[in-house]
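Subject: ABC-type uncharacterized transport system domain-containing protein

B.,
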Amino acid sequence: MKKNRILWQVFKYSFWLGPMIAIAGLSAGFVSGIWQPVPLALIITGVVIIGVWLALKGYWETDLKDKRLKNRRSTQAGTNALVATVSVIVIIASINIIAVRNPVRIDLTENQQFTLAPQTQTIVTNLPEPLKVWVFDPTQNPQTKSLLDRYREKNPALFSYEFIDPQMQPGLAQEFGVRNFGEIHLEAGSRRQLIRREGRQPLTEVTLTNSIEQIFSDRTSQIYFLQGHGQRPLQAGQGGFQQAVDSLKERNFVVEPLNLAQATGIPENANVIVVAGPQQRLFEGEVNALIDFLDNGGGLLLMLDPKTDPGLDNLLDKWGVKLDDRIAIDATGSGRLVGLGLTVPIVREYGDHPITRDFGNNISLFPSARPVETRPVDGITETPIIWTDTQSWAESNLVEGRLEFNPETDREGPLSLGVALTRVLNPQETPTAETTETEETTETPTAETAETTETAETPTAETVETTETAETAETAETEETEETAETAETEETTDTEETTATAQEARLVVFGNSQFATDGWLEQQLNRDIFVNTIVWLSQPDQEVLSIGVKSVTSRRILMTPPLGRLLSWMALVIFPFMGFAVSAFLWWRRR
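Prediction pasted inline below.
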């Protein structure tokens, strides 16, 4: 009898297991939008548990006395339980349906971490045609998915995304030319664009918005690689730039070689000029052409290897850049783990710049690189974007077999291997209002003289009237002339303000190495991203898109010194427990 009571108590409370499992299945189905197989299995399991519980309850109560009365009560209890369960399920399901169909997001973070920038919201809301983001990654990065969800909320009719496992759908991956896990592609109509090769870091708003703007932009950037002085070839092979060229073409850049010795000058459609690893000095006329190109608002990328003299000292001096002819040495020893020597610095530190802003602490490789130094120049803003580790130095003597730091001849790290510079150009001179006013004022006396002459040649009785008429006409013309001059002055002032507001920028990026972007090395870690991002920044896409700032997370950690940490450990493990035992012992002794 006692055993039956225990079983009855366990059985009575086991009823709630069914509703809980059924509610879990309904919630999972409504939230994910997928009902098979897990949500449907949970719902069926919950319903089966409820049904079995009601059946067993009715069966067990038939053995008790007063079967008819008990049956009535069991029926009522079962009916009440069933109605209550169904009501709870319906209420919870209704709440879930309303929440899914009418989502409300409230960003309570300090700097609006989960809110899209106004520029992004404008671009996504005004998409001209359907856009889809393809993420080729077997594992769905939750931060990337959350970002894509926020984009889709702004325009669910035209923006969509899909995660694809390249191993499960190799045909689709081959169609997009996927080479690595984590690649992200954009597709709009017949146009496709690669956003990122590898998924080491979550997708960022800056990268995605910039790519969306590029794929819908009618503007095509023209990139010219300077040739004729031993620069890196654009074809595949040892030290070639074939992979770099292909990466630029994937982003809708037009790439062509340029030999200034055979051309009349830099083409007018050039957006970026790349000078990659010249082995001989450039002609003075070529250097002057590059200087003029920068003065006209162009973008120039210089990738200069050590132990070479490209003859660009005049250009670099104007921008406050100086190249160190020593070789950067990485003494951290981390390169040995991956089979690299000391002359291949492993870079983990990057400047706060649009080129490197999303890199975090990921690594890039710069074999045989020279440091790049800068000095302040009025009107020029410089930002070092590539830094070596503190355990590095610039070696001046590579002849000896053993590399050691010599404080007399070597330079201690960290070393800057790349720098980005900008200079705001002065607006071009335009005709001013004074010139317009002078020209029109000069014409006015001529008209007045003609009318006065005609009046003087008419000696009739109407001379006075004619004179008054002429004076009235002159006054009217003078007023019109003044109004015209004021209008012209206002228009010129407005034009000048607009020109000043949209003044161009000259952009220059200097790397102390060109090998990092050659075939083979370009595929290593972040090397491709550094090269492509540099070209994108130099081509000067829409400034409003690039101005989207990175929302940094405010650190709320308590920084404790080791002594303070030990003190807190002693307080938590020894002092406070001892105080508790001491108080307990005192109270026990006093009551005794």
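The first strand starts at residue 131 and ends at 136.

T.
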